[in-house]
Amino acid sequence: MKGLELSEKFYNEYGKKMLETEFNEYLDSIAAGLVGHGSECFGFDDDISRDHDFDAGFCIWISEKDDAKFGFKLLRAYSKLVKEHCEVDLKAKSRFGSDFKGVKTIEDFYSFYVGSKLPETNREWLTIPDHYLAEATNGKVFFDGAGEFTRIRNYLKDGRPEDVRLKKLASSLFYMAQSGQYNYERAALHGENVASAIALTEFVKSTVSAVFLLNGAYAPYYKWAYRAINGLKELKAVAPYLYELLRSPYDISANKVGIEAVCALIKDHLVSFGYVGDKGDYLEPYAYSVNDLIFDADMRNSPVML
User: Does the structure show a pLDDT above 70 at 48?
Assistant: First the structure.
């Protein structure tokens, strides 16, 4: 059983009853679910994942105001519940409970990812790494009495300004061209094998970023990003090419073909979806054309490379 399914099962069998019995008067102030750090929140956990930070617990979120009212009592009730029914000892302690699970304030949870206030301006959104936003909006909310946790979750999930997405996309396209179509082969011809391998890695990273941005999604932390491509609607076809590129980083002739195949898929998507007209095979002109679509003049006129 996957960790998210296990967590929801534990909540439905034990957690829900505990909240309804011991905290019924506060139910409209409580949210519960499994969101945040950990492969189980993305559905990517396996048997190996269980060697650290893994148990059947779940998260409980309350406001700072309500934390002062009943937070400590709720923490004790949750800890007792886990010890009695989880059959897994609590691991590394966080402020309120075991690792990222247990009782947290809504403010503490989201401030870890976006700072002390929610992003509003383009610049504020631009400074938040996509993998932070992916973590802040992953998993599942089982119950939300007040709706505040879900309101913020939906704002972060759907609220990124289009200008910010376009800026990040333009930057990713630029680095794809620079690292993959230009520097990879040149470094190899100079005999700089490590430099060529680094360029190839940068190309793959930038491609993954571009694929998620073209899907309007947030790319998760690098160790899950490749796997997450298969859950996207568009451009899943790039994944096998990326695998082959990294499998043999020094096969220059084969990788030149693979790089161009990936770039062709990205270019065709840009043209088909109306971002830009056909400008040839090299992606750098596409980067500048996408950047020109940005409405915010300050952001549009800033360097395309982030």
Answer: no
